[in-house]
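Fresh eyes needed here. I'd like your take on this protein's tokenised backbone:
***
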Amino acid sequence: MHTAEAKLGLSRSTIYRLVNEGELVRIKIGKSSSGITAASLHALIERNKAFAS
């Protein structure tokens, strides 16, 4: 989650909103930890690049 926040420059609540909207994929890591898949993070960045162009 910290990497996603840093790469995207977004707050944790915005990251969770994007997960709930299906824009990012969250995976469980252990019992109480979770993360965002690199593939979904890169896909979101690419979609935003295309949108900005």
About this structure: The chain has a mean pLDDT of 89. The two ends are 27 Å apart (CA to CA). The beta strands are 26-29, 33-36.
